[in-house]
Fold each of these.
Amino acid sequence: MVNRSSSQYKTTFFPKFLSRKRSPFLFTLLILFAFAFSIFVFLFYTRNSFDAEEAQPFWFKEPQSEQKVDQLVQIPDKQLWDAPFSYGLHPCIKPTARYKASRDSNHYITVRSNGGLNQMRTGIADMVAVARIMNATLVIPQLDKRSFWHDSSIFSDIFDELHFIETLRRDVQIVEELPKLLEKSPRARKHFTSWSSVGYYEEMTQLWKEYQVIHVAKSDSRLANNDLPLDVQRLRCRALYQALRFAPPIESLGKKLVERLRSSGGRYIALHLRYEKDMLSFTGCTYGLTDQESEELRIMRESTSHWKVKKINSTEQREAGFCPLTPKEVGIFLQALGYPPSTLIYIAAGDIYGGNIHLSELSSRFPNIVFKETLATREELMPFANHASQTAALDYIISIESDVFVPSHSGNMARAVEGHRRFLGHHKTISPDRKGLVEIFDMLETGRLEESSLSPLVQRMHKNRQGAPRKRKGPLPGIKGRGRFRTEEPFYENPYPECICTPKRHIE
């Protein structure tokens, strides 16, 4: 027998083997070797295909089986309902050590607030800060009575006027009305430029040389979102989150309705279902509507003089994510996130366009739907009848107190509620990615995707859209001039970091 080294054995094994008589043992060994080698080759090449699959856009990746989808839909309650981890962040709206109390002033600013409830609220908060910058006395603002809702409410019908004045007494002087001597005096009537800086308003103080009263025709978005002094930003937060408390009758009924929701279901979703006639007409969104309904919305848009854009391509609007989700789309969305059919949902909205015909596409999936009209008695709601801003305030209170808030469109209320919930502790707010969802919904509509395969796609898409702490987003890249301000995340949608601090800044 010849003694072979290991290296010599490796190079001469196969020729020698072939020249000798094949034994059963060696034959078995060869088969095992070939099988192991084939497994290695298979794993090597399929690894590349797995990597390629991960690189595909996530909405094209379908689960392996319906059983897997069922397991993903069974989301733990903690994941469905708990607020995101807040890292110890907390509200911080006290003035800094450099802040000085307001000074006496014989100059006055009068304001006509414009828009719906939340557009007026944020606008009033801006005007408080503007009055401080210009060292002026603020007259209690007039509310918009000419908007779509034609609400005749005055300030004290919606807000606690005395609380408003008292809470801000160190910041700015506020009076109920102009002194009698100034009622007929000349006034500077101004449309202050949107998203303006402190420097702009300091220049406007030149008007005091000729006038004692400045009348501001519009109040919304009059201050910049960013690059303002810290004390100005915190004053805006004090005005909005502390001073602008709702009138006692609204606060009282709002708390009662929250208690009734808690007693009937424990936890609830507040759904701002912005599927109302004015919104659909303004945005030109007609997906899922009949020809007759679409024409009705077109006529309304054409006849509303202050809506500047008249001709709108509904398909382009929807594909760009500018349309509110339909009731059916909201139902599919919530179901895909894992919420069970028994979930209690409060609809924070006015009249849903098309009534039960369209609403049934949501209630067929989630039958436990309630409105303020079903929670409150007729007698309780009677004082607020025909006052849209007051009933919207009830919706606001219930939305702030909800376990989960979901807006179907990013309008003024959606932004204000999200910002307030962030301020209070980053309560769970799920912001639908409407553009991404439209792609998925269209795949469902055309049969390219089964609804049973939807859940993991939607959950992954919205993993980071649930109200977790983050700094406010700046303007979109590539946009120059004043147009960039329009692309910024509004201050009141996310008042972090100026009004929300880390534990290290607790002393401020």
Amino acid sequence: MSNTNITRLNAAIEKIEGLEREFTMHRERTNKRLQVLRIENDLLTNKLAVASERIAFLENYLELEEDEEGREAVPAPALPGGNTQGGEPAGEDTAPVADVDRQLALSAEAAKGKPMKDLIAKIFKHLMGVSKITPKSLPAYPSADSDAPPPQDPSTGQPLLRLDWSAGASHVNNVKGLERVLTFIRAHGARHHPIATQGLTDINDDHLKERIKNKYEYMARQWRMLQKGAVVAAEEEEEDIFGEEAPAGSNDAPAPAGSSSKAIGLARAHQNSRATSKLEGRKRKRVGSEYVDPRFDAAFTLNAMSADEDDPNQVSGEAKRWCSRAPDFRSDVAQELYDTIDAIPDPDPDKSKAATTRVRGPVQVGAVPAKAKSLKTRLRAWQIKPAFLANNPHWLTTKRVARSGKAWGDAEDPSDDEETRKDTTKNKTTTKRPRRATIDQEGVNQSKARLDALMAGEDLQTIFEEEG
């Protein structure tokens, strides 16, 4: 071989070796970038979980709930061609703008409607194989190290739906499950809930996906609060709500005689959501009634309302009903007030039509008036049966019941020394703040430690800079 060929061969070998070194360097740098991205993804996921717990605490404390008893606002999806403003879509064969707008309006209306809400809840129960979807009833997601076969639907042999309630709707553990809900609703929804047939015709996939996602996130949020112990404010600010009785002949029709009512545990915010709709309806009916006098104000507070339980006699396929139970301590005067108010037609028929039907359940025996820090939300003595108040005089001294006042024949109006009393030793009012459970941030801390160890002091930004 000539010297020239040897020189060329050596040059080629040297170039190949240089390319190998360069390739190895790029591969190592790319691998490091992937490791950084994975750890940062874990870090963001853990931070999101912490933020979700804090938001859940605030929603619970502020008693925020889904709009219209579970019907959340659903955003309009993008129009064909990427148009999200309602303008003329691209292309010559697209439908007129007016038709597109009408279809979107029908879809949005169907998404917000009660039939669609009830259908989605029913399909979640069907696919998970449970009779109810309260936080305590939601089936657990199987652990990664479990060798047990997934539970199956005995009628079809198909695996039952299992969702990871600790993760978001877009998490890999939940995406396929929620898609399964959508597919099942499209294929079998009308058969399982005939009243939603028209809604299924009107609703588009974007709206339906969003509605399913909202339902999942609501259930997951309630489940996480249950795991954390459902944080509430200090005991003095406790304002629980009790059972309600509906008058015969009203929209809250009495349940059949002898029907049983099983108390179903509901999160406090969920209870208040149901009671709030009832309270708002009664406030509307109060205008122009015989109960507009301020002496009846105590009857129109959230604390005076009762918890509406899921009706234990609910028939599958029928519209959702709630079972209302009156506390046994409620006076005849107070019950007559509610009977009269509930018999008045609602001045806002649209809201009345959208309200969930309530049926009368048995009286709640052993109920105790809720504590109320504020005098304005405390029950008054005229709302309590005299015999109950005589047997429980401590209710008047433990922020459960206040005197009725001059309008009811008392010598003085009730006063709450606790509202005006100042700490004379510190010369300032002491306020008990709501307390939440400690949020576990171990996942965040571990991700940060892994990232620091990987970078070993190197600037994170330099990892992703393009090399010259």
